[in-house]
Amino acid sequence: MRYGVWRRRRVSVGSILIVCALCAGMGLLMLNLRQVDPPTSPDFPMQIHNSDSESESGGEVGVEDEPESKSKRKSNSCATVEEMGKDFKGGFWEESLRVRKLIQHHFDLNGASRVRNLPPEQFCQHGFVMGKASEAGFGNEMYKILNGAALSILLNRSLIIGQTRGKFPFGDYISYSNVSFTMREIKHLWRLNKCVKKYGRQLIMRTDDFEKPTQTNVLCSDWRKWKQPIIWFQGTNDAVAAQFFLKNIHPEMRNAASILFGKPEVLHSRPNVFGELMRVLITPSEDVEDAVNWVLSGVEPDISLHMRMLMNKSIRAAQAALNCIRKAKQNLGKSPRPRVVIVSDTPSLVKSITPNISKFAEVIHFDYELFKGNISDSRKGLHSLDFRMKDWGPAPRWVAFVDFFLASHAKYAVVSGAHRRVGTTYAQLIAALAAANNLGTYIHIVFG
Ligand SMILES: *[C@@H]1O[C@H](CO)[C@@H](O)[C@H](O)[C@H]1NC(C)=O
Ligand SMILES: *[C@@H]1O[C@H](CO)[C@@H](O)[C@H](O)[C@H]1NC(C)=O
Ligand SMILES: *[C@@H]1O[C@H](CO)[C@@H](O)[C@H](O)[C@H]1NC(C)=O
Ligand SMILES: *[C@@H]1O[C@H](CO)[C@@H](O)[C@H](O)[C@H]1NC(C)=O
Ligand SMILES: *[C@@H]1O[C@H](CO)[C@@H](O)[C@H](O)[C@H]1NC(C)=O
Asked: 178 in ligand 2 pocket by Cβ < 6 Å?
């Protein structure tokens, strides 16, 4: 078995971004400070108000001041793909398994089923972390919840997943496991247990805004000492947010962070934290899962190709993607004709690249127009004017969720390409979830 890793690296082919991640490993591991991309354009702001479903992966925020990540960049800037992978040999699997157990233990202790039954005195002293997302770009919004979950582990608090008008974020497409609380339940239990009257504990939430570098306490405060019942770490829409605690000035905070994220100075100790968290927190809704199963018809794909092209047809992007898939196939070895699932917002690209991939692999693609299920029935003609509807090209939004869970079935590799710098968090999370779904299988990542 070989384990490699995916270091993300932008390779500019004109304005096209192609990232190949061979193998489910993807570790998205990446999800770590080192992964921060070179600041190709420091002028890329954090919030991009255009119709892209994802803004940047967000690595730029505040990270520019991190001397360590700078030096890493330098030392790595000329490494070949193979060299980059070497650091990750071994370790990834064990570390992710360790984190899987840690997460499990955390939710055994701090999950809703135990905490809601605590005696009033203990319940009222208990702490919570809010994970709250809107329904903007899925990748970035999901990261907000995952960062909340990560922080709850760092601080030994329970997780609340915020709802809007009684609905979970993306609740039509995603089901949330029962390990977290809703705010409504916390308020109810607070009254029931008489936390205010009997124990003098007001239900107060302390917020910290990660998007405001001059105000956030992510580096300089010992959050474990915060007394407020609820903490909300806002604006954490990427993989690096919670990992900033690895750089906190308080050794106890750094230590708590490295128990979860691994030691920043040891590359091969980086576990797939976000993938493991997602695996515990979310599953596709029944309707979405029906569609996924319909496409797969019982056979798992080997490789996922994610191409977010914003309706642009680019020959070079297609060529780069083909190279990556070939490379993934080589690393895969045995299987003579791997199954490649393509997810894309650009139907014309799917059409044009399919014959080329079909020469050496079996191509799977979710054609939502052919799918007859509850989700397609109930949503026909339900096209709101929300600009987000255009996120996934001409397809209705639910298709992006089917594609997300479909692509996360990849056993060996996730290859991602995007027109300009979009779509990275969606693809990162696909790879992270695929890696968690396949923990223990072969893991390797490559960039083209
Ligand atoms: C975490 O909280 C639980 C109670 O909820 C407590 O038993 C345990 O000792 C705490 N662990 C740490 C490391 O603080
Ligand atoms: C929570 O979900 C798990 C798995 O779906 C299930 O086994 C368990 O019984 C549930 N617990 C509660 C309290 O509903
Ligand atoms: C393709 O991308 C270019 C920018 O690189 C953009 O100006 C153009 O509108 C895009 N084409 C389509 C059909 O969206
Ligand atoms: C796909 O195959 C066709 C026909 O062989 C070829 O003309 C085209 O350049 C190929 N596309 C890419 C992106 O390699
Ligand atoms: C579709 O919805 C109907 C009515 O709500 C339900 O009985 C049926 O089981 C659903 N079908 C699937 C495949 O979920």
From this structure: yes
Mutation test residue for ligand 5: of 290, 374, 378, 379, the one with most atoms within 8 Å of CB: 374
| Boundaries of every domain in the chain | 48-74+296-447, 91-284
Domain covering 48-74+296-447: architecture = 3-Layer(aba) Sandwich (3.40)
Q: How far is Cα 75 from Cα 300, in angstroms, rounded to an integer?
A: 38
Q: In a 3-state reduction of DSSP, which class is residue 246?
A: helix
Which ligand is located closest to the Cα atom of residue 105?
A: 1
What six digits make up the tokens of 268? Answer: 């091969």
Give the whole-angstrom CA distance, residue 320 versus residue 12: 11
So what's the pLDDT on residue 286?
Answer: 94
Cα 339 to Cα 203: distance, rounded to the nearest angstrom: 52
Whether the pLDDT of residue 116 is over 80: the answer is: yes
Measured CA distances, 255 to 245, 262, 283, 289, 416 (Å): 9, 9, 31, 39, 33
Whole-Å CA distances, 376 to 148, 225, 290, 350:
32, 49, 11, 21
Cβ contact 435:100 at 8 Å: no
Mean pLDDT throughout 427-443? Answer: 83
- For the cut 90, the answer to whether the pLDDT of residue 26 exceeds it is no
Residue nearest to atom 12 of ligand 5 (CA): 374
Q: Please give the share of the chain, as a percent, with pLDDT higher than 70.
A: 73
Rounded to the nearest 10°, the torsion over CA 139, 305, 84, 29 is 30
CA angle 374/375/377 to nearest 5° reads 65
Using a 6 Å cutoff on CB, does residue 374 contact ligand 5? yes
> Ligand 4 atom closest to Cα of 318?
13
d(CA 304, CA 433): 12
| Pairing state between β 16-21 and 413-419 | antiparallel
Q: What are all long-range contacts of 173-177, with beta carbons under 8 Å and residues at least 24 apart?
A: 173/284, 173/285, 173/287, 173/288, 173/398, 173/401, 174/282, 174/283, 174/284, 174/285, 174/288, 174/401, 175/282, 175/283, 175/284, 175/285, 175/286, 176/281, 176/282, 177/280, 177/281, 177/282, 177/283
Query: Which residues fall within 8 angstroms of residue 225, CB to CB, at 6 or more apart?
Result: none
Strands 16-21 and 205-209: unpaired
Q: Which amino acid is at 400?
A: A
How far CA 208 is from CA of 33, 150, 182, 211, 218, in Å, comes to 20, 15, 20, 9, 8
Short-list 417, 418, 414, 442, CA closest to 429: 414
What residues does ligand 1 touch, defined as CB less than 6 Å away? Answer: 109-110, 156
